[in-house]
Amino acid sequence: MTRLEGRLVLPQGVVAGQLEFSETITGLEADPGSSGPYLLPGFIDTHLHGGGGGDTMDGADGVRTLARFHLAHGTTTLYPTTITNPWDAILHALDGVRQVQADPDPTLPSIPGVHLEGPFISPDRLGAQPPQTVEPTSAQLDDLLSEGVIRLVTLAPELPGVPEAARRFAEAGVRVSVGHTTADAETVAAFAKTVRGAGGTLGFTHLYNAMGGLAGREPGVVGASLADRDAYSELILDLRHVHPASFLAAMHAKPDRLHLITDSIRANGLGDGETELGGQRVIVKDGAATLPDGTIAGSTLTLDRALRNALELGVNLTQASRMLSLIPAQYLGLSDRGDLRQGKRADLVVLDDDFKVQEVYVAGRRVV
Ligand SMILES: [Zn+2]
Asked: What per-residue confidence (pLDDT) applies to 117?
């Protein structure tokens, strides 16, 4: 049993008090006399390719490496994310995550499953995805679903075969996220019906990026996302991918459905230099990762930095914490975590007065 004293960051506000936990939280007590660091629920990243030199596409070792790197920044649950690549490379990545799950390391973040980003996306909205996109076939879907590790998939609704693929993913309990797409708002609305008709939950992948813009008479994918109260949306808050005003507009439109991600790449934590993403050359300069043609290629963001960015933009700590923990937990159906409440997993981040990570706990074990 561990007992921590500090400022508890709860979904309804910040309260001085004490937290008692073993594997799960066993006690929570408000005590105005308490002082100490900020205590937050562990961060949940639904979209990250790599970090610390490792990448999801490397297989099991790459997944462990990226998990260890992000853990030091407060991420206690993550979804290793694949990239558009030859079919065998994608299956290799899924197999790597399956191996990690089969031999779980209690000193690493929890890994409930994979985010499959590509190859079922638009060749006309690649962003930094390699141009190896395909339209889904039922044999490919059989392959993917039989691996049993995908929990979240990014799809371009306008591609032939994608509505049927979305139906199958949704029926298998996989969250379906619209992204890397040229669809119009009407196509997205029809797609949302398909997903929900199959019992699924709809999301939007890195809102604003690789989906075109919003205009009064042409709402596009962004407008479709903001107009849909029930749909979740990921956002990369590195202050490079999205303008602060666009972020704030989305947060005000969707205070309970917008969550923050990193979209982090392998080179995160290694400083400036050359690296790769999906087999493509990537240059990192002053922390900005781009393809040689200047296209933004993922990020070197970590979720503790995303939290500080949100606070600097005037978001209160409670809301910032919700966007990093409770909202992604609700999106992915992780009812056992996401906030500081009795009975929840003791996944915790301890932050100092400058919101820097001091300690991290995974299921009650101090790992940082
Ligand atoms: Zn992407």
From this structure: 98
pTM, rounded to two decimals: 0.98
Q: Tell me the two tokens of residue 201.
A: 């939950």
Q: Which of 232, 125, 129 is nearest to 176 (CA)?
A: 232
Task: List, for residues 181-235, the tens digit of each pLDDT value.
Answer: 999 999 999 999 999 999 999 999 999 999 999 999 999 999 999 999 999 999 9
Contact 38, 6 (CB under 8 A): yes
Give 360 Cα–ligand 1 centroid separation in angstroms.
Answer: 28
Distances (CA, A) of 237 to 208, 213, 248, 259, 295: 11, 18, 10, 10, 17
Give distance in angstroms: CA of 166 to centre of ligand 1. Answer: 18
| Cα–chain center distance at 17 | 30
Query: Which residues, 6+ apart, have CB-to-CB distance to 74 below 8 Å?
Result: 40, 42, 43, 302, 303, 304, 307, 349, 351, 357, 360
Give residue 219 CA to ligand 1 midpoint distance, Å: 20
Q: How confident is the model at residue 170, as a pLDDT?
A: 98
